[in-house]
Automatic annotation (TrEMBL):
Family note: Belongs to the 4Fe4S bacterial-type ferredoxin family. RnfB subfamily.
Binding site for [4Fe-4S] cluster 1: C47, C50, C55, C72
Cellular-component GO terms for this entry: plasma membrane
Broad class of the protein's primary localization: membrane
Protein name, UniProt field: Ion-translocating oxidoreductase complex subunit B
Co-factor binding comment: Binds 3 [4Fe-4S] clusters.
UniProt binding sites for [4Fe-4S] cluster 3: C148, C168, C171, C174
Provenance organism: Pseudodesulfovibrio aespoeensis (strain ATCC 700646 / DSM 10631 / Aspo-2)
GO biological process, one term: electron transport chain
GO molecular function, one term: electron transfer activity
Subcellular location: Cell inner membrane
Keywords: 4Fe-4S, Cell inner membrane, Cell membrane, Electron transport, Iron, Iron-sulfur, Membrane, Metal-binding, Repeat, Translocase, Transport
Hydrophobic: annotated segments: 1-24
Domain 4Fe-4S ferredoxin-type: 129-158, 159-188
Length: 701
């Protein structure tokens, strides 16, 4: 009996042991040991500021890959470095993220009602969609300020939140509570690679700028005296504010809402002011770059497009090398645009700053002759940017064009840019109506020639910048409008003596919208000339893309430019990208710079994700409802004028720079003319009359 009982007990005990052993195997929950280790190095405050339930929750999120090494918002860099070490991440390559308020706008165009309940943006937004008419902008009740546990946000003098980057830990609490989504947590790479989206707060000027510069933001920064911040804003989009501040025809100003009151804000003069402020200080502002990735990219062509592409690739951590056929960089900025508009010393200073980030250059290396796509691949370049501009000149296709003394305007300007002998005579005829024609004419004047500029349409149709057209006239260039060359007459030695031209009259508009010039039969006339410069257009020289068998792996457009995806700028070969005049045909410096950044963005995405991205939300055209036809209640305010550094008399015999920069007082005055537009708002209080303006400006420290 006793034996049976013992056996039963032993059996029960054994069965229980087996069940427990099996259960422990089946119900065992594995915990990644890194969770405990990560939790061990976190600050231990269990504050929840990271958005997770205490430090244990944060550690779990890190190990699950839901949070980064910088998860602990009060731990600072030391804690983040420890977390990164446990997770096997490279802490030095982690970008600092900060909160960025996208709405710094003005008072809304129209107040609909004022909600007197709880002073909370979320309640306001939920109950009434906000008290202001703008459906996108900041409501200004400061819920983000209350949400921030680090005192990093406060309401600025105009009632909009201002972030202190030094205190911001990028915990995201402000972004979480903002019902309008106007606060984003950004790192440098995300800011550099962002393209305008229709949901962004895009003032008309910002929509129109081919470089996508956040114009309202830098104007607001200059108005507060934050010149360094303004330059940082500009350099998130273009690397050459000194050059652009001098040569841009500022398309942004054409849509400035202030034109409905008096004249556009002098956007480009403000940019030039702040860019000159840095250069004249002699100190370069630091430009941040992501940690090295070691990925090699070849940038072919060192004009504005190539320089911008290399600049942003470097800022994104990659290693670009520029291959340039000329002995110096700058492209048409150096060899087209003359000294009196853009001094070489200024251009050199700007390019030195770009190269100073750690960009290599191979000078006098001609693509298609000294190297090609295959050799670049062999040399370890993982992607290629092609930006060789549009240097092939169109010909007049008239008799005598090959006579001595007949040359293209760009050849002449390049010789001047290289300090070479030009062989210019005394009586010069320039043919064309664009920037190249005007620069050729004004440069010829400075070399002592008597210059006539012949154009087949009228002054109104000239594509050159209006200031240049007026400047040329002031310097004595004679215009011969509605005249087209029909023949170059040469002497017995084959040197030009006259240009024969025919009178034109304007007919119906052509596909460009300009009225088509029609010849007046029998009106041929001769004009005397010992030198003729033609400047009737350029296109890219694409022969360098063909191999010995005459094959080109890349596509071309009907305008004989390099074909590429309109947003990503990727060509038919996935690792080859393009931008600038080579892609668009002859355009503007700001367009080339904008395309350079876009291409760098795509190359970065290609290197990191395998392919470039584009979003359906991208802003391509002007957004119609943001284009106002009037801005009531805004008083007149005189636009500043650019000072001239050289007198009219002196101008025709010197290459000294003509235009100067605004003084700091003038720049501030100009920033106070800005209406601080957003998608729909503008600030009438700030500009309504002299008193309001003075009040606003008094708030500026
Ligand atoms: P580019 O500036 O042409 O640069 C291309 C670079 O590629 C050059 O450095 C070239 O040497 C190099 N390259 C060419 N072939 C090869 C090769 N096979 N291998 C290696 N390298 C090569 N725009 C404005 O906004 N405002 C103005 O006032 C203005 N004035 C102008 C005046 C003139 C006379 C000219 C010609 C243009 C002007 N423009 C102006 C237009 C502006 O300069 C161009 O749109 C801009 O420079 C284009 O930049 P890019 O980098 O695409 O090409």
């Amino acid at each position: 009996m006793i034996t049976t009982s013992v056996l039963v007990l032993l059996g029960i005990g054994f069965t229980a042991a087996v069940i427990l052993a099996v259960a422990s195997k089946l119900l065992y929950v594995y915990e990644d040991p890194r969770i405990a280790r990560v939790e061990g190095v976190l600050a231990g405050a269990n504050c929840g500021g990271c958005g997770y339930p205490g430090c244990a929750g944060a550690a779990q999120a890190v190990v699950d890959g839901k949070a980064g090494a910088t998860v602990c918002v009060i731990g600072g860099d030391a804690v983040a470095a420890n977390v990164a070490a446990i997770m096997g991440l490279d802490f030095s390559s982690m970008e600092k993220q900060i909160a960025f308020v996208d709405c710094t706008g003005g008072v809304r165009a129209e107040e609909i009602y004022e909600y007197a309940g709880v002073r909370d943006c979320r309640a306001q937004n939920l109950l009434y969609g906000g008290s202001k008419m703008c459906p996108e902008g900041c409501l200004g009740l400061g819920t983000c300020v209350t949400a921030c546990q680090f005192g990093a946000i406060e309401m600025g003098p105009d009632g909009y939140p201002v972030v202190d980057p030094a205190l911001c830990t990028a915990c995201g609490a402000c972004a979480q509570v903002c019902p309008r989504g106007v606060i984003t947590i950004w790192g440098l790479s995300a800011r550099i690679t962002h393209l305008n989206e229709i949901t962004d707060c895009l003032a008309p000027c910002r929509q129109r700028c081919p470089g996508q510069i956040n114009i309202p933001r830098y104007i607001e920064q200059v108005s507060r005296g934050d010149y360094a911040g303004a330059l940082e804003t500009i350099r998130e989009r273009i690397p050459m504010p000194l050059s652009i501040g001098r040569v841009c025809p500022y398309p942004c100003e054409s849509v400035c809402r202030r034109t409905h009151v008096d004249e556009a804000v002098g956007i480009n003069m403000i940019k030039r002011f702040v860019a000159d402020w840095e250069m004249n200080s002699g100190q370069r502002l630091p430009i941040s770059c992501a940690a090295d990735t070691g990925r090699k990219v070849a940038v072919v062509g060192g004009g504005p497009a190539g320089l911008a592409c290399a600049f942003y690739l470097r800022r994104l951590g990659h290693s670009p090398t520029i291959f340039e056929s000329m002995p110096k960089l700058g492209g048409q900025l150096r060899f087209g645009i003359p000294e009196y508009r853009l001094p070489k010393a200024v251009l050199d200073w700007e390019i030195e700053g770009i190269l100073g980030l750690g960009i290599d250059v191979e000078y006098e290396k001609v693509f298609g002759t000294d190297f090609d796509l295959d050799s670049l691949k062999t040399d370890g370049f993982e992607a290629v940017f092609l930006g060789i501009g549009a240097w092939m000149n169109m010909t007049l296709r008239i008799d005598g064009e090959d006579s001595g003394g007949v040359e293209t305007g760009t050849e002449f300007l390049t010789k001047v840019g290289l300090n070479m002998e030009t062989g210019i005579g005394r009586k010069v005829v320039v043919i064309g109506g664009g920037n190249t024609a005007i620069d050729t004419a004004r440069t010829s004047v400075r070399l002592g020639a008597d210059v006539t500029l012949m154009y087949r349409r009228t002054k109104d149709e000239m594509p050159a910048n209006i200031e240049e057209i007026i400047g040329a006239e002031e310097e004595g260039v004679k215009y011969l409008f509605l005249a087209a060359p029909t023949r170059i007459v040469a002497d017995a030695a084959g040197h030009v003596t006259h240009v024969e031209y025919i009178r034109m009259e304007l007919g119906e508009p052509d596909e460009s919208g300009r009225r088509r010039p029609v010849p007046v039969t029998g009106s041929e006339t001769l004009i005397e000339a010992d030198t003729v410069y033609t400047a009737i257009g350029q296109k890219p020289e694409l022969s360098c893309l063909y191999d010995e068998s005459g094959t080109c792996p890349l596509g071309q457009t009907k305008w004989r430019t390099l074909d590429a995806h309109p947003v990503t700028l990727q060509t038919a070969l996935p690792h080859v990208f393009t931008g600038g005049d080579m892609h668009t045909g002859p355009a503007l410096v700001i367009t080339a710079l904008g395309e350079g950044r876009k291409a760098a963005r795509s190359i970065h995405q290609y290197l990191t994700d395998g392919e470039p991205h584009y979003s359906s939300k991208l802003q391509r055209e002007l957004i119609p409802y943001t284009m106002f036809t009037n801005v009531p209640d805004v008083g007149h305010r005189q636009r500043s004028t650019i000072p001239h550094l050289v007198s009219y008399d002196e101008r025709t015999c010197t290459f000294k720079e003509i235009e100067g920069a605004l003084s700091s007082e003038e720049a501030k005055h100009e920033t106070c003319r800005c209406l601080r537009c957003g998608l729909t708002c503008y600030n009438r209080d700030m500009t309504g009359d002299q008193e309001c303006l003075a009040e606003h400006c008094a708030k500026i420290p």
